[in-house]
Amino acid sequence: MTPELTIVVPYVNGPADLADCLAALAPEAAERPTEVLVVDRVGDAPTVAAGQPWVTVLDGRGQTIPEMRQTAFRAARGPTVAVIEDHVIVPRGWSAALLAARAAGERVIGGAVRNLATDNLVDWAAFLCEYAHLLPPLPAGPVAGLPGNNTGYDRDLLARYAEVLGQGAWEDRLHAAIRADGVGLISHPEIVVGHKMHYTAWLYTSQRYLYSRSYAGKRLAGAPLAKRVIMGLASFALPPVLFARIVSTVWRKGGHRPELVRSLPLLAWFTLAWAAGEVVGCWFGEGDAMRQVR
Exposed e or buried b for every residue in 75-95, given b needs 16+ CB within 10 A? Predict the structure, then answer.
């Protein structure tokens, strides 16, 4: 039977994360024909997914997360392809909401992300650093960008962008190409997933650095040396800019001001790591950073 929905899960963390993710997806898969494609970079996904016939494990060894997504896109059979992460927890009704938007003719849909790792200050600081812009309230309708871990696509549309996907860049490059062709990215704030990722201060510091280096290095790949030097120098100014943007965004939205205040020292440190990754990526390229992001 052809599935109505394909859900892509790059697996880069640990078995407990993946088990929780799949447990949340099980009721969704029971409601309609669904395939979940777990792209396995860790090596134990077959064990974690045992007894769940709606899960297919694909080999993702040695791949970056963008490459893992592309591996799943090529294998997807559903007309709608959704992308989440191995530490994302979907609520009941998530699949139905995605498919309702697709049935209305929308070809790229994204939702909101809320924090489910709430017991640890480091987890809160990491979440606010990365997802402040996705806190409610969010606009509904056409937007300039969508999250990479709560997005649904028309599979036929994805096939048109195989060359863009083959560049191995983060989802913003795909979304920019889609928008440039006149296809809207549609925000649905009511389609929410939970982000349940636990960090130590050092783990998030290193991940923030690696992501930023990979992003900057990929963005400036092949650029003239002078441009890379200038962009790297400009990145030294990023920490206060990033810090101010996060703080002002969370404060304006109003929902997590106590967590924000407690997180300020960690946020200052994380934005330093963010900027350091930008500088190194501009000057020395992405290196192996992309393969270490999880």
Answer: ebbbbbbbbbbbbbbbeeebb
The domain boundary residue, chosen from 164, 195, 226: 195
Q: Are residues 71 and 211 in the same domain?
A: no
Secondary structure of residue 104 in the 3-state scheme = coil
pTM over 0.90: yes
CB-based contacts of 47, cutoff 8 Å, min separation 6: 15
State whether 175 and 261 are in the same domain. Answer: no
Closest by CA to 29, choosing from 84, 86, 90, 73, is 90
Beta bridge partners of 193: 113
The CATH number linked to 180 is: 3.90.550.10
Kindly state the helix (H) or strand (E) to which residue 24 belongs, with its residue range: helix 15-31
How many other C-beta atoms lie within 10 A of the C-beta of residue 261?
11
Sequence-distant (6+) residues with CB within 8 A of 63 are 39, 41, 71, 291
pLDDT single digits (tens) 70-118 = 999 999 999 999 999 999 999 999 999 999 999 999 999 999 999 999 9
